[in-house]
């Protein structure tokens, strides 16, 4: 069996650093024809494109990298991003809705606006992205090799306990995992598979603050006694985007060493 994305065209939101960049790199290394990345900052887009171009060149791959800055939490920006992407690609096979944000604070100090902001990016923008790109995905998918939507959810969608007061984040990730299952039923007949990834803790800009405080205990509690590394998320992405996984639709795949089975460190004592 061959696990690859040979000749595929992909869009990865939040593809300029962290898990999104890991996903984009995996697609480049496993044969993608074109990988489109986006994030808010133009400089981050340029740097990530330069990195991915170098990865392609260094590994004898011919992927074209397209980087377009956009704030996808803003409806108009996302619509413009969709138009710009549509003008540059001839087909779309893979959408990785990865961009996300978090906010942690005790209940009494937790701004309602922070919850709203997190939900806007982690849920509404994911929905909006899927809505915009679905017609293109439907054109390129086949019964033997459907198009793929991967939603970057989180182990937080499976474990209701959290150590840092990330109320909106937990709700957002449970929400998108559920939305993914709903869309899997609806889009399956149109040859689009929708699956969610539920990573545990991977060191990135987003998780570093939490890991500084809870990193050691998270490693101790994890059945594999370590945090996630790049190869862990890349393996899951390539598996779920390859032809042999054509019959896997509507799952939420933990990529967490089994941490969802044992939960998170204790919740904050301060409310
Ligand atoms: N790291 C973990 O342990 C972990 C665990 C479970 C799930 N996840 C999920 O994985 C995804 C990626 O997280 P990460 O840890 O890699 O975070 P990260 O390092 O903070 O990366 C987030 C990416 O999203 C982009 N982004 C943020 N807001 C955006 C917006 N409004 N419009 C467009 N792009 C935006 C960022 O670039 P700009 O700042 O330039 O916009 C960046 O490229 C998130 O959905 C997160 O919830 C992470």
TrEMBL record:
Keywords from the UniProt entry: NADP, Oxidoreductase
InterPro entries for the chain: NAD(P)-bd_dom_sf, SDR_fam, Sec_Metab_Biosynth_SDR
SUPFAM superfamilies, sorted: NAD(P)-binding Rossmann-fold domains (SSF51735)
Gene3D superfamilies, A to Z: NAD(P)-binding Rossmann-like Domain
Sections of the chain in a coiled coil: none
Domain of life, source organism: Eukaryota
Pfam families from the UniProt entry: adh_short_C2 (PF13561)
Similarity annotation: Belongs to the short-chain dehydrogenases/reductases (SDR) family.
Protein name: D-arabinitol 2-dehydrogenase [ribulose-forming]
Protein source organism: [Candida] anglica
Organism lineage string: Eukaryota, Fungi, Dikarya, Ascomycota, Saccharomycotina
Gene name of the encoded protein: ARD
């Amino acid at each position: 069996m061959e696990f690859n994305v040979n000749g595929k065209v992909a869009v990865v939101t939040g593809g300029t650093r962290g898990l999104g960049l890991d996903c984009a790199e995996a697609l480049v290394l496993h044969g993608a024809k074109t990988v489109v990345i986006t994030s808010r900052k133009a400089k981050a887009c340029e740097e990530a494109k330069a990195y991915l171009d170098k990865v392609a060149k260094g590994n004898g791959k011919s992927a074209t990298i397209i980087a377009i800055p956009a704030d996808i939490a803003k409806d108009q920006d996302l619509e413009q991003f969709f138009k710009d992407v549509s003008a540059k690609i001839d087909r779309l096979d893979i959408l990785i809705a990865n961009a996300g944000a978090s906010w942690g604070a005790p209940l009494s100090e937790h701004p309602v606006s922070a919850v709203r902001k997190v939900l806007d990016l982690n849920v509404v923008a994911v929905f909006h992205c899927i809505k915009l790109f679905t017609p293109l995905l439907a054109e390129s998918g086949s019964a033997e090799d459907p198009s793929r939507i991967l939603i970057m959810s989180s182990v937080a969608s499976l474990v209701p306990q959290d150590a840092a007061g990330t109320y909106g984040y937990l709700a957002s990730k449970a929400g998108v995992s559920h939305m993914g299952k709903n869309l899997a039923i609806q889009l399956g007949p149109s040859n689009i598979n929708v699956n969610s990834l539920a990573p545990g803790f991977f060191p990135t800009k987003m998780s570093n603050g939490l890991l500084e405080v809870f990193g050691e205990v998270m490693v101790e509690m994890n059945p594999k006694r370590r945090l996630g590394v790049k190869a862990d998320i890349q393996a899951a992405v390539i598996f779920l985007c390859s032809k042999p996984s054509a019959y896997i639709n509507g799952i939420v795949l933990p990529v967490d060493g089994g941490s969802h089975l044992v939960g998170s460190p204790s919740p904050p004592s301060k409310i």
